């Protein structure tokens, strides 16, 4: 299912004390951690990242995310920022395309929750959002000051939910709802409320407890623990300066080699701290841009993973689709196969893995 992303990240983080989207998290930042899932999702056609006009990170993020994701300026309120993001998406998307709005302050969204949201949104015409049924007893208080509050009533919780993001709607319908809210001087607290005011209530999809929103320093520590626990679910990882994606590293090397542009270590040396823990899709995108500037394009790709474990059959199609999406190829132009060494050598002992890549490139300047 194809969708576009709008990620509002223009807030000043007043409650947090600073711009929380740039707080360090899992070797990166909250913002980049939140983006990573969508960067690696082949179903995401692209989108807009909404930043404050004075954000000092704008230029660097624009260079890294282009052309798939665009940087646009934020507005006075969330509703204005999201509208700006939708306007940027509308320049490339069709009016009936799905748009997913996700807070940069929710960096722990899981692949499973995202897929479940897409499935539920596809079942109807309005859209869907992640949320959690309220589990605690709810009290209405007056005044609102936590230090001087008195109970007014106990509110039945059976039908109450806590709304989260992502929230997903058709592009034209969401734009119309938000623009109507602005025109009538109403400020929705989320996109779903604007749709409700238009008589189009969305479907609620139960999220996991891990989809928390960063609001204070304690939430950062919890997010770090969630991401670490998620990482430990895999038996083994790789020791590397970047993220250690051997398939993408081999592919980048093959592309650079075919164009006589050196190798991955030359362009992204492990002596440079900016590449520590870097997502290897950044290397792939950069290599593609190098070829494009020379009038060259990738025609097809053949990849081989040499590993005793893990078995990649269950992820094969997703990997092919992700690579095809980044390179602008049909999925049929990307082949992926795997083999073991029958328990021989360091690969057979599960001490490491290797990859090989073959790339065909077409040089449009050759005739000239």
User: Helix count, per DSSP?
Assistant: 12
Strand order across the largest sheet: 5-4-1-6-10-7-11
- Count of individual beta strands: 14
* Helical/strand content category: alpha/beta
CATH topology term of the largest domain: Spore Coat Polysaccharide Biosynthesis Protein SpsA, Chain A
Instruction: Assign the CATH architecture of the largest domain.
Output: Alpha-Beta Complex
Q: What Rg is obtained from the alpha carbons, in whole angstroms? A: 23 Å
Largest sheet descriptor: 7 strands, mixed
What is the CA-CA span between the terminal residues?
Answer: 41 Å
In the CATH hierarchy, what is the class of the largest domain?
A: Alpha Beta
Overall pLDDT metric:
88
Secondary-structure element order, as H and E? EEEHEHEHEHEEEEHHEHHHHEHEHE
Report the sheet-strand fraction.
15-25%
Number of spatially distinct domains = 2
Low-pLDDT runs of 5+ residues are 235-244
User: What fraction, in percent, of the residue positions are helical?
Assistant: 25-40%
CATH fourth-tier homologous superfamily of the largest domain: Spore Coat Polysaccharide Biosynthesis Protein SpsA, Chain A
The geometry reads as globular
